[in-house]
Structures are given as C-alpha cells and as structure tokens.
Specification:
alpha+beta, Catalase HpII,  Chain A, domain 1, 10-stranded antiparallel β-sheet, two-stranded antiparallel sheet, 9 helices, binds protoporphyrin IX containing FE
C-alpha cells in the first residue's frame, strides 16, 4: 500500500488514483454535471459561535471568534434521481469563512466510520458496490442472514431497480474492516429532516491548543433538536421533502447543531477511519452552529468543498483516505465544472 504523508503534495500517482476513484464512483444513472456521490443537496447559510473553552483545545480562528458559514446538506447516493425517503447516508459539508478571504471546511456524514482504510481498497469497494439489479431476498435468505449475524439486503423500494447494497454487503463479508460501515449504512434509514441527523467527520486531525499542546481529535455535529428518522412501517416514502422541510423550518428561526470534539488516547487508531474510538473518550463542546437561511441551488451546487481545506491550528493525520480525498474532490469538481476550491488552507 502506498502511504501518503504531509510532504507528498499533489504527486501524479496520487492524482491517478483520485481519477480512478472518481470514475469508479460515477454511476451509469448519474448526472455528469453533478457530484458523482452526494449528488442531491441543498444549501444554507449561518454562523458559528465558539464555546468559551474551544480555543484552549484548538487555536484555529473559528474556535476563537464568531464566523459566518455556508453549509450543504446532501443525500449520499450518486443516482441522478432524488430519493429523499430512501434509506441512505446523508452529508453535511460546512465552510467556515475566515478573515482575509480564507476558509476552512469540515465535511461530515451520518456514518461514524468509513468503509475502507485507504484509497486503493476504496477503489476495489467502489467497483464491487456498483449498482446491480435488485432482487428481493426470500424469507429463507433473510433467515440465513440472521444466522450469519448480518443485516439482510433491504427490500427494494417501489421504483428501485438497481442498488449498490448487495455488492457492498458482499465486499463486507470478505473484508472485516468494511463491516461496521457497510452494515450501518444498510440499515441507516431516512432522516425526518437534515436538521435531525448527527454528522461525523470520521478522520482524525491534530488540533493545537492555545498553549501549543497537540491532540488527536475527531469532530461530529450533534443536532440540538435530536436525531429522528422516518418510520418505514408508518410514514409514506416521499422523494422530495428534505429541501422543503429545511426551508419551512428555517422560516421559524435558526436551527442549532453542537460541534463536539472527541480527544483520542494512546492505543486509539489515529490513521484508520474504519475504526471508531471508544465511546467514553473525553468530548469537548467546541461551539454552536446556527443554520439560518436557505440558499438557492445556484450557490451551493457548483461550490467545491475539500476535507483538506484546513487552517492554522488543525492539521491532517496520516489517514490515507483523508489524503486521497484531497485530490479526488479536486478532480471531481473539475469534471463537473464546479467553482474551484479556494485552497488557502495549510498545508
Ligand atoms: C477515498 C474516500 C472518498 C472518496 C474517493 C470520496 C469521493 C467524493 C467525491 C468525488 C465527492 C464529490 C466532490 C465534488 O464534486 O465536489 C464527494 C462528496 C462528499 N463526500 Fe466523499 N469521498 C470519500 C470519503 C468520504 C468520507 C470519509 C466522508 C465522510 C466524512 C465523505 C463525505 C462526503 C460528503 C458529505 C460529500 C458531499 C460534499 C458536498 O456537499 O460538496 N466522503 N466524495
């Protein structure tokens, strides 16, 4: 496995893998002018207020002063048809607008862990999890799944003819590291609102506190109104409700998320995004995001976020997935003619 480190920059080998990844993620039923994954999204603006203790643990500008933000919520699927009511991972990409026209991004999703530990294995995963014709499992197959302690392949929704689920589950049977992510993704459901989901940045970062102390950290957004998914037994499956719900909810006033920062300890895995840290690790409340105004699609659909757009006070770990995402998001943004990522970040 090729290990990328801080000094590697944008090596051609690195970009080659990124190109292959973006090609592998592009679905036949996708839209080439949109993102190959997290294709449907909706934007909002707001601001972030750091907590009184945040700067002690991370000296980055947005943990010292109030910052304006641009947020894009999304459905994880790369299909060209919006299916808000289908079970899917959701995303929340947040740009903090810093002084001197600089910015830093924090990209989260509703899974707490990723499917693979590096870019090469994610390429194999992406190929194996290409959408295939869906087949409803027989009661006997579901019983066999229960005996194997694996989630049964979900029953297809009305109108669902192809799905990545069977390939992803088959990959997880062959690769232990993929199990936590794939099995949670298979049963994740649909949120009642983008504002009622928790989003995890998944990777470890190195945060430098005001006193110069460096810590391994992981970030997640917790919705102040709590997590709530639709009830598949009772609620009708609606294709297009999340954008309308967001607009309606924000007319009543801002919606809040708390930014939590988990602090890693010796023995935790700092470079592998497939492995969660123990739940009892210390968590610091870093601040509150106020989601205020819905933005029209022309603003956020062309925007390009990047998990490597960092700022002084936060550095990347050597997580190989985090490193390959740097190039993959640039390649993807270029292909869909997105607004170039304002790469003022460090390094
Ligand atoms: C090797 C691993 C990964 C690859 C190759 C990959 C690839 C991509 C690509 C190509 C895009 C579209 C970017 C654009 O066109 O602007 C994207 C978007 C996104 N990805 Fe990933 N991704 C990876 C891992 C992750 C992880 C670990 C997370 C979880 C934090 C994540 C969350 C998201 C989200 C939320 C978006 C939508 C961002 C937006 O709204 O612009 N991805 N990904």
């Amino acid at each position: 496995m090729r290990r990328w480190t801080v000094g590697d920059g944008m090596g051609e080998q690195h970009r080659n893998l990124a190109r292959k990844l973006v090609t592998a993620l592009q679905r036949k039923d996708g839209d080439r002018d949109k993102r190959p994954v997290h294709t449907f999204g909706t934007g909002a603006s707001g601001h972030f207020e750091p907590s009184p203790v945040a700067a002690n643990f991370c000296d980055a500008e947005h943990f010292r002063v109030r910052t304006n933000t641009t947020i894009r919520f999304s459905n994880g699927s790369g299909s060209g048809v919006r299916r808000d009511g289908w079970s899917d991972v959701r995303g929340m990409a947040t740009r903090f607008h810093l002084s001197d026209n600089k910015a830093t991004d924090l990209i989260g999703m509703t899974l707490p862990v990723f499917f693979t530990p590096d870019g090469e294995s994610f390429l194999k995963f992406a190929v194996e999890a290409r959408p295939k014709p869906v087949q409803r499992e027989t009661p006997w197959q579901k019983f066999r799944d229960m005996l194997r302690l694996t989630p049964p392949a979900p029953d297809p929704y009305a109108g669902e003819t192809i799905s990545p689920d069977a390939g992803a589950i088959a990959f997880a049977h062959q690769h232990d590291y993929a199990r936590a992510g794939v099995f949670q993704a298979a049963t994740i459901g649909a949120p009642t609102s983008y504002l009622r989901a928790a989003y995890h940045a998944v990777h470890s970062f190195v945060a430098t506190g005001a006193d110069g102390v460096q810590r391994w950290v992981r970030f997640s957004w917790q919705p102040v109104s709590g997590v709530l998914t639709t009830d598949p037994e009772k609620d009708p499956v609606v294709d297009d409700y999340l954008q309308k719900e967001l607009a309606q909810r924000l007319r009543k006033g801002p919606a809040l998320f708390s930014l939590m920062m988990q602090i890693g300890e010796v023995g935790d895995d700092f470079n592998d995004p497939t492995r969660a840290w123990p739940p009892h690790r210390m968590r610091i409340m870093m601040g509150t995001l106020y989601v205020e105004t819905i933005l029209d699609d022309t603003t956020t659909e062309k925007l390009s976020f990047n998990p490597h757009l960092l700022t002084k006070g936060i550095a990347p770990s050597e997580d190989q997935v985090l490193w390959v995402r740097k190039s993959a998001y640039e390649v993807s943004s270029g292909r869909r003619r997105g607004t170039p990522c304002p790469f003022h970040g460090e390094p």
